Amino acid sequence: MLAGRRIVLGVTGGVAAYKAAYLARRLTERGAEVRVVMTPAATEFIGTATFAALTGNDPVVDLFSDKDPSPHTSLAAWADVVVVAPATASTLSRLASGESSNALIATLIATTAPVLLAPAMHTEMWEHEATRHNVATLKEWGYHIVEPDSGELAGGDVGVGRLADPDAIVDAIESIVINGPLAGLHVIVTSGGTREAIDPVRYIGNRSSGKMGNAIARVAAARGATVTLVTAADAPDLSGVETVSVESADEMAQAVWGRLEGCDVAVMAAAVADFKPSVQGTTKIKRDSGLPTVSFVPTADVLKGVHESENRPFLVGFAAETGGLEDAAAKVKRKGVDLLVGNDVSRSGSEFGSDTNQVTLFYKDGSSKALPLLDKDDVAKALWDEIVALRGAI
Ligand code: CTP
Hints:
The protein has 13 helices and 21 strands. By secondary structure, the chain is α/β, with parallel strands linked by helices. The protein has two domains: 6-178, 3-Layer(aba) Sandwich (Rossmann fold), CATH 3.40.50; 186-393, Rossmann fold. The strands form six sheets. The protein has an eight-stranded mixed sheet with strand order 12-11-8-13-16-17-19-20, with helices on both faces. A hairpin with a 5-residue loop joins strand 9 (196-197) and strand 10 (203-204). It is elongated, with a radius of gyration of 25 Å. The structure holds cytidine-5'-triphosphate.
């Protein structure tokens, strides 16, 4: 369940910080990618080298001396889940008052990912009015809390306040993933550029890399959806995603149409050929045979078939344009989609194969919203936020 999930582990300055190393280990053992952000006080209890060795990434401690000019927003955007273990009384207080005074609090305030807090402190501090008030506020805001255990505390005291067992924290993280905002949804995503054969060795294709659709599938799975990715690109290794490899538009159509029953959302991010050679040679066309003439016939329209299906899901189309998005707006109606994602692949940063994309969302009511240039993963997150909001509205 955690394989491939991106988890930011926040470590604060309590003696239980040493248990965060075990937690990091358990998370990586389960296949999660882990990045650590520590408060300066946490480094008094455990070294950064421990987490670097366990996770393969140097922890972020300082907002200003990191090689990344904006480590908090990078971590915030990267995370599927953020967990703070241990969370001291001071960290709970700073978070509840929005006092973004270190890299960890800044990350927590910048992220839209679910956050799990595992408090650990002395009993008196846990039971203090201020802490109770802060925990109540944070719960009200949607933060998940793993309550501390009762047992031996630092200095030989005994009582409530011991960091919850790291395995219980792992279970809580899994439950957040399983019960994510897309839990219960069945999703089909298409990605990549189809290839239309001319003969057994040659094809007509396009430059789509599949990165955008793959990110959409990955984020959906990370948010709890059951995902099928039908891809014409190299099959990505995405845990929790059923991947179906196809080559041509017609194969993609069969793969998608055959899986529509029970599908709640279809996101058609593939660059599908609109036409294919009318005849495909069964043997390689030889140079000596002279210049071939290739004539074309239309391919299956995958999206149209989904739209016209009796199991029509919430339908998201893509429009890869060049030289502006004027044509994209008209496609919402023409294609019968609930949402259209337009991008200009001739623009720098949005080209096929790029890790970033600048998209504009076109809605059924004729309105549109341009998103900034973002990593494709962040585009995918924004898109799912939008789909959830729109599905609620229909
Ligand atoms: N699409 C599809 N099957 C096709 C062609 C396109 O499912 N045979 C889908 C794409 O995955 C995308 C949407 O339709 O989600 C729009 O594709 P696009 O090529 O922009 O649409 P066209 O109507 O073919 O427009 P254009 O004339 O610009 O090519």
